[in-house]
Automatic annotation (TrEMBL):
<dbReference type="InterPro" id="IPR020596">
    <property type="entry name" value="rRNA_Ade_Mease_Trfase_CS"/>
</dbReference>
<keyword id="KW-0698">rRNA processing</keyword>
<dbReference type="GO" id="GO:0003723">
    <property type="term" value="F:RNA binding"/>
</dbReference>
<dbReference type="Pfam" id="PF00398">
    <property type="entry name" value="RrnaAD"/>
</dbReference>
<keyword id="KW-0808">Transferase</keyword>
<dbReference type="InterPro" id="IPR001737">
    <property type="entry name" value="KsgA/Erm"/>
</dbReference>
<protein>
    <recommendedName>
        <fullName>Ribosomal RNA small subunit methyltransferase A</fullName>
        <ecNumber>2.1.1.182</ecNumber>
    </recommendedName>
</protein>
<feature type="binding site">
    <location>
        <position position="15"/>
    </location>
    <ligand>
        <name>S-adenosyl-L-methionine</name>
    </ligand>
</feature>
<keyword id="KW-0963">Cytoplasm</keyword>
<feature type="binding site">
    <location>
        <position position="103"/>
    </location>
    <ligand>
        <name>S-adenosyl-L-methionine</name>
    </ligand>
</feature>
<dbReference type="InterPro" id="IPR029063">
    <property type="entry name" value="SAM-dependent_MTases_sf"/>
</dbReference>
<dbReference type="InterPro" id="IPR020598">
    <property type="entry name" value="rRNA_Ade_methylase_Trfase_N"/>
</dbReference>
<dbReference type="InterPro" id="IPR023165">
    <property type="entry name" value="rRNA_Ade_diMease-like_C"/>
</dbReference>
<keyword id="KW-0949">S-adenosyl-L-methionine</keyword>
<feature type="binding site">
    <location>
        <position position="61"/>
    </location>
    <ligand>
        <name>S-adenosyl-L-methionine</name>
    </ligand>
</feature>
<dbReference type="InterPro" id="IPR011530">
    <property type="entry name" value="rRNA_adenine_dimethylase"/>
</dbReference>
<feature type="domain" description="Ribosomal RNA adenine methylase transferase N-terminal">
    <location>
        <begin position="20"/>
        <end position="188"/>
    </location>
</feature>
Amino acid sequence: MAQHKARKRFGQNFLTDQSIPEAIVRAIHPESSDTIVEIGPGLSALTNPLLERVDHLRVVEIDRDLAARLRHHYSPKRLTVIEADALTVDFSQFGQGVRIVGNLPYNISSPLLFHLMESADYVRDQHFMLQKEVIDRMVAKPGDSDYGRLSVMLQTRYKMYSLFDVPPECFDPPPKVMSSVVRMIPLGADRPVAQDPVMFARLVTQAFAQRRKMLRGSLKDWQINWQALGIPETARAEELSVMDFIRMSDFCSQQKS
């Protein structure tokens, strides 16, 4: 088949250094019977080593030419190709304990991460290659310069670990940024959960909208009793823990009711 040219509209950067997919597979440590779904298999850099370890693999590919290549190259007994935009796929359809992996398109990484949260109850773990800057924000702790809305929202649902960095020269075409690999493990049913998830999301967004502002300024319209919550009104959003945001949200929910 003809050589495939990377398409900018799909954010395609193909791995050419085979040591990286092998390192990702070692991190996943799959068993032969695992239910694994790969997002964006591309030219099969990660697909091949995964198929050496599992009985059957499912992949989600938006590019119809690449989907056709995959169907041509692999038996349907080993590989199921779902030709679709990952943002439209309901990942709960794959059943309990699904493991999701992929070299995610950087242009839709945040929307896709939020979309996957909807299926987190069905997921065992997720391993993704993303822009290093994004992963630094995902795993950041209160007080870190990278700590922000993405950190708080994802940390309500996952325990996350930055595993290793991947330089641009490992790709074709090489991206202009450093990449990293992250492990995401969904938190259990006993995790703290805001009473009103919609209000919680609004509160976090508002708090970080002007991150250098003190909370008494950025959240002045929320009528929060800072003293009752034990949170200094002079604090800034980047200083608060995920639990602090949940307590603030619950306070506002109770005031509203």
